[in-house]
From TrEMBL:
Subunit relationships: Component of a signal recognition particle (SRP) complex that consists of a 7SL RNA molecule of 300 nucleotides and six protein subunits: SRP72, SRP68, SRP54, SRP19, SRP14 and SRP9.
Lineage: superkingdom: Eukaryota
Domain statement: The NG domain, also named G domain, is a special guanosine triphosphatase (GTPase) domain, which binds GTP and forms a guanosine 5'-triphosphate (GTP)-dependent complex with a homologous NG domain in the SRP receptor subunit SRPRA. The two NG domains undergo cooperative rearrangements upon their assembly, which culminate in the reciprocal activation of the GTPase activity of one another. SRP receptor compaction upon binding with cargo-loaded SRP and GTPase rearrangement drive SRP-mediated cotranslational protein translocation into the ER. The M domain binds the 7SL RNA in presence of SRP19 and binds the signal sequence of presecretory proteins.
Keyword Transmembrane helix on entry: no
GO biological process: SRP-dependent cotranslational protein targeting to membrane, translocation
Family: Belongs to the GTP-binding SRP family. SRP54 subfamily.
Localisation per UniProt entry: Cytoplasm; Endoplasmic reticulum
UniProt GO cellular component terms: cytosol; endoplasmic reticulum; signal recognition particle, endoplasmic reticulum targeting
Pfam families, per database record: SRP54, SRP54_N, SRP_SPB
Protein name per the record: Signal recognition particle 54 kDa protein
Amino acid sequence: LGQKISQALSMIQNAESIDEKVLDACLKEIVTALLQADVNVRLVGKLRDNVKTRANNADKGAGLNKRKIIEKAVVDELSSMLSSGVDEKKLVDLKKGQPNVIMFVGLQGAGKTTTCTKYGAYYKKKGFKPALVCADTFRAGAFDQLKQNATKMQIPFYGSYTETDPAVIAAKGVEEFKKANHDLIIVDTSGRHKQEDSLFEEMRQVSVMTKPDLIIFVMDGSIGQAAEDQAKAFKDTVEVGAVILTKMDGHAKGGGALSAVAATKSPIVFIGTGEHMDEFERFEPNAFVGRLLGRGDWRGFVDKISEAVPEDAMKEELMDSLSKGNFTMRILYEQLANIQKMGPVGQGKEKESAARIKMFMTIMDSMTDKELDCPNPKVLQEQSRVMRVARGAGCNPYCVLELLEEYKRIRALIMGPGGKGKGFMQQMSKQ
Ligand code: GDP
Ligand code: MG
């Protein structure tokens, strides 16, 4: 899905000028891609209308600007599709001092047991007193798995080797932990390979017995088109209130996520990015859409510059340049080169980010010394300059603009929005 949308957007990027025809052709591709991924027709229609309106409103602007506006509109609309209309902050910011009972549901292998523990550990760090209840009597070894995870994270747990009714175990566990004043009681349930009736009946019973404050649907992020059916089936049985996508570390781009959000009308609150307990993060719609469009999590990666600098040998040199008053393109180039030197990057998104850094460095290679040392970012934005650099680097002018935008963003981060020494620099000199 992401690739198709990127292709559609590149139609706009490669067009000589953007007229109604080009925009329509591009939108048609995007709409088709979304519909093929089972995204709700109404949502897709809304996306098309909104992008069109925004593009038409931008008609006064120059060609290059319009490209950006359209891309941004598509990204924004996809992000808002992912935001489900429910305030996910309320679901994430659990109240302390009351027993929050959270029930996890999902198919077998989706990652419930792993995610339950990650979830508990996440809130434990925030000062909660979590506890885990194993209501999976279907899978052999389910209790042992939960026990092992819970012990590792030092979270109390409850389960039984002899009781066979999951609803009874769940009710007992929740009661016991309520008495012990736990403010986060997590109920892990069993799954089945398919959406079988027995699974749903069991889920309903556990839910009736434990009266959870929130039911979280755990879904493998890579399942794509099957997502909508699966999510709907769970939502039809119990009151799913939030979604967690797992296995977002692999090649999964999570196109199915859009459908899951639409089907459950519930926001994605967290994602799992690996088998380890700390590979768990808040869901960020914008970063997700970026990844969906194949741009990598470039922003987060670049922000590492400001983290890496203080310990580094290059600190003095950087400070020296900065004290002369400028974070030039050349300094950015050197910082990126340093990041590259920091060694081989990990999987998935870091690799994509590395490719992006390489692309940006290639673009900078096509700049003149004057441009690299230019104190004023505005000069670099001149259209003829952008076109010349793009030609030299053999890339689309759009990529040059992206580099300029990132440069300006990092510059503001380091120099402070008003110019000299109000940002990162000042903080560093205080240390
Ligand atoms: P359950 O049947 O829904 O309880 O799923 P489990 O928690 O037992 O997980 C099934 C498998 O998926 C296990 O091998 C987990 O280690 C793995 N897993 C769970 N979450 C993630 C994740 O975010 N990334 C990766 N790579 N593997 C995961
Ligand atoms: Mg399990």
